[in-house]
TrEMBL record:
Protein's name in the database: Outer membrane protein beta-barrel domain-containing protein
Lineage: superkingdom: Bacteria
Pfam families associated with the record: CarboxypepD_reg
InterPro entries listed in its UniProt record: CarboxyPept-like_regulatory (IPR008969)
Length: 879
């Protein structure tokens, strides 16, 4: 919109033929000359609307509401009307189809679904789906492609009703072209199981991306190729095909310029959509991740990034009863990271600070696949089977120097592993009739982790514990293998009592069997090995976890209040067999939960959740033989570890006023953790031994967030804040230690569009961190003004510049200032499929950025080395 044009306000109210106000009616103003939408409004609870219009122009006013005949009338914007313009809609006796009506509506709310007509909100400079979503009210898209709506994370992304790479948001937001998107649907309480539609207890949030009609039954996407000095290269292809029966998506990428199509972090977070059945019953058994110790490279913490990806997603419906779907993802990464960190150890007898210089290289090849089939012979019956697998070959090489007081050590640490897992799931859902519904879900998972850690140290590591006989450099190797077999089953019965009440009875079981073996040896200078056969340096452990439970859930509705209390009775049995000693425990627990939601109206709600959850640990916390974790850290399990008990309360508020586009949401979460599993830490100078234990002091955590967003005629303004305060307790060198961690961040942002040529975002963010232990405390601040400018000029040229300035303040180190700027110049002739681009990253050639972190015994501040300045010339062709 042009700021040079004088605006007048067109306001009024919409009612039905009997005089009742109509909330959520869409009022559109169409410029009669350009035939384009000039403005729109959605009526408030009083039926009111207001639209800023350019003075002197004639508009076609259109009003739409589901179940009513559309209204049209010409209006000349002379002056702001002082008397509300009254519009009356007549009921549609022929009941026009929703599709015809929705096509006219910028925003439509129907139950738990909100539909946005994206062309009303977009500015014209969007390139991928992520750009489109950022233009919608209440949407947030982070740098990794994750999506939040009103502060709540999106669980799944669908394209024309079909899951896109198992609902992965990153692959969707960074690859789906913006110009193919017609509408975006927000699906609250998402549930794609037809027999359960009447008893839906889902809290998932999903997005359904509806494609434009001319993008169906054709192949679309884009191909990019780029090159630059110093052997920089980029190749990328997105290709998509959609029709009523077949969906195929292909994404391929290879580059060394830091564009992370798929990372190691993505590999470990991908679950294939599988989740624990027992989690919904208040119980959690977590298998320790095999990503521990692997540095996760991102664009803002790595010196060199080389990534390759090939990903295929398919969805085929040969008939209305059968659906076959799945994906295959192969990736390769070769990343180098470097940093200098100042490390302060809490309650360490020697107060000197360690300076650790580190360079790490991670190389990996990984593959993921999923195949599934769904059979739906009728709306009352659904049966599906899915298999999901992961395999990888990961190598992590590190070269470090540790300086502590007068002591300096050169360290090499190399970790290799080839983990794999496969999981199968069978589910069946049957609605016997409208009042009796049954479901069965069963799964089996096998997972193998086999990390091998080789430590080479100029000084003798753990000299008082590990009897090494060689000379410097000392060469120590830790072997470990963990095998997990886990099976779950759950049977649910739903009884619909009436329209506002139903009950859910569930019976379930989780059984996990694990084995862990570990040993270590020293490699001597003459090529021989020194194997350590001491019992405390080896592990041979068998471990089983069993959970049998029965649960009852009751859901009822009182006008606008929905209450869902539940009780879950669990019987647990844990056994650990090692060194001819069997430990473990039996326990029976009753775990309650409550969900309450009050809907003031469709877009205004308050939600309360309370639950008590039992958290159980896996075999790695029970294995009592020592395991080397890093150059200065050993870990010893504890056969007496028991479960933790978490009390969690969270409150979420959501208010989206489409009349004036004021969007307010926030939340508060409190967790009280009883018998929490923490570590006893024994220090010997820098070296430490960590042993898990159930702490008898309560750990607590409080987190909160708040966001307010307002759209004006030509501007969008937002302000958000996040807080996190935690109190955790552990034991360091026989001394009880309380850690207090308080982190807060604030961000203000203003966006505007001038003359449809200049797009400007600018703002200011600040993050504050305060870490406290028994004998130390540290404070960190980072102040960051930022701006993004995009300018369209001449015919087909576009310049985009991203800039941020950082002032990093540390309590113990000098203030560091650094700034980052990226820029790109694009050219595309109107109507052409070709685009040419020159881009430069890190134009100021900043060498490093600052960050800080906190753990139970360590406070660190880092300087990460990042990619140096580079240039790239890219050609793109739209398919």
């Amino acid at each position: 919109m042009s700021l040079a044009q004088e605006k007048v306000i067109f306001s009024g109210e919409v009612r039905d033929s009997e005089g009742a106000v109509l909330e959520y009616a869409n009022v559109l103003a169409i410029d009669t000359l350009s035939k384009k939408m000039a403005g729109f409004s959605v009526t408030n609870p009083q039926g009111g609307f207001r639209i800023p219009l350019e003075k002197g122009k004639v508009y076609n006013i259109k009003v739409s509401f589901v179940g009513f005949l559309p209204f049209e009338q010409l209006y000349e914007a002379k002056e702001t009307n002082t008397v509300p313009f009254s519009i009356q809609l007549s009921a549609d006796s022929q009941n026009l189809g929703d599709v015809e009506v929705v096509s006219e509506m910028p925003v439509l709310i129907q139950g738990d679904t909100i539909t946005y007509k994206t062309e009303v909100f977009t500015q014209g400079n969007e390139r991928k789906l992520g750009d489109v979503l950022e233009d919608l009210p209440g949407f947030e898209v982070d740098e990794d492609g994750g999506v939040k709506i009103q502060g709540k994370s999106v669980n799944k992304v669908l394209v024309d009703g079909k899951e896109f790479f198992e609902g992965d948001t990153k692959l969707a937001t960074k690859n789906l072209p913006a110009n193919v998107v017609d509408k975006v649907q927000v699906l609250q309480n998402y549930n794609n199981i037809s027999p359960l539609s009447s008893v839906n207890n889902s809290e998932q949030l999903a997005l359904n991306i509806q494609l434009k009609e001319d993008k169906k039954n054709i192949l679309f996407g884009d191909i990019r190729a780029g090159a630059g000095p110093e052997e920089r290269y980029l190749g990328h292809i997105n290709s998509f095909f959609y029709n009523a029966k077949t969906n195929i998506n292909l994404i391929a990428d290879a580059n060394n310029v830091g564009q992370l199509a798929f990372t190691m972090n993505d590999y470990f977070r991908f679950t294939g959509g599988f989740g624990s059945f027992a989690r919904g019953a208040g119980s959690s058994f977590q298998v320790s991740s095999n990503s521990l110790g692997i540095p996760m490279a991102e664009r803002n913490n790595a010196q060199s990034l080389k990534n390759e990806l090939a990903a295929l997603n398919y969805n085929f419906a040969p008939s209305n009863k059968w659906n076959i779907s799945g994906f295959a993802i192969g990736s390769s990464v070769d990343n180098t990271m470097g940093s200098i960190s100042n490390r302060t150890y809490i309650l360490q007898p020697n107060a000197n600070q360690e300076v650790l210089t580190s360079e790490q290289r991670v190389k990996s090849s990984s593959g993921l696949f999923k195949a599934g089939v769904k059979y739906t012979p009728s709306p009352n019956l659904q049966v599906d089977y899915n298999a999901f697998g992961r395999i990888a070959d990961i190598q992590n090489y590190s070269s470090q120097n540790s300086t502590f007081g007068n002591q300096s050590n050169d360290i090499e640490g190399n970790t290799t592993q080839e983990p794999y897992s496969i999981e199968q799931q069978l589910r069946a859902f049957w609605a016997q009739n409208e009042k009796n519904i049954f479901s069965f879900e069963g799964s089996y998972q096998r997972e193998v982790q086999d990390p091998t850690y080789n430590l080479i140290n100029s000084g003798q590591p753990f000299s008082s514990i590990i009897p090494m006989t060689g000379n410097s450099p000392y060469d120590l190797t830790q072997l470990k293998e963990v095998t997990t077999n886990k099976q779950e089953a759950a049977l649910n019965y739903y009884r619909v009592l009436n329209k506002t009440n139903h009950i859910n009875l569930k019976v379930g079981n989780t059984y996990s069997s694990q084995s862990l073996t570990s040993s270590m040896f020293e490699r001597l200078a003459d090529g021989t090995t020194n194997t350590f056969n001491q019992t405390d340096l080896m592990n041979m452990v068998d471990y089983t976890f069993e959970d049998y439970y029965v649960g009852l859930l009751y859901k009822t509705k009182f006008n606008d209040l929905v209450l869902t209390p539940s009780l879950n009775l669990h019987r647990y049995q844990v056994n650990a067999d090692q060194n001819n000693f069997i430990g473990g425990f039996d326990k029976t627990m009753l775990l309650p939960a409550l969900n309450a939601k009050y809907n003031f109206r469709s877009s205004h709600s308050l939600t309360l959740n309370y639950d008590v959850a039992a958290q159980f640990t896996d075999i790695q916390n029970y294995a009592e033989g020592l395991i080397v974790r890093s150059y200065n850290s050993l870990f010893r399990g504890n056969v007496n570890v028991m479960n933790s008990l978490y009390h969690t309360v969270n409150i979420n508020y959501f208010n989206f006023n489409m009349y004036n586009f004021l969007n307010i949401y926030g939340g508060l979460n409190y967790a009280k953790r009883l018998d929490d599993v923490t570590n006893i830490v024994e220090f010997n100078n820098l070296e430490r031994v960590n042993t898990p234990t159930n702490i008898n002091t309560t750990n607590e955590a409080v987190t909160g967030y708040a966001n307010i967003e307002k759209r004006f005629d030509d501007f969008r303004a937002s302000l958000n804040a996040n807080w996190s305060r935690s109190i955790s307790n552990n034991i360091i060198s026989d001394t009880p230690n309380e850690n207090i961690n308080f982190v807060e961040s604030y961000k203000a942002k203003l966006s505007t569009t001038l003359f449809k040529k200049l797009f400007l975002d600018f703002g200011y963010s600040v993050s504050l961190s305060n870490y406290e232990g028994n004998n130390t405390s540290s404070k960190f601040e980072n102040h960051q003004p930022f701006a993004n400018l995009e300018f369209n000029f001449l015919k087909g040229f576009s310049l985009e510049v991203d800039y941020e300035y950082n002032s990093y303040v540390s309590q113990t180190n000098p203030t560091q200032q650094f700034d980052l700027m990226d820029a790109e110049l694009r050219y595309r002739k109107e109507g052409s499929a070709w685009e040419f681009k020159v881009e430069g990253m890190n134009l100021f050639n900043t060498t490093g950025i600052r960050r800080d972190s906190f753990s139970e015994s360590l406070i660190s501040t880092y300087e990460y080395f990042i990619q140096k300045r580079y240039w790239l010339f890219t050609v793109m062709y739209d398919l």
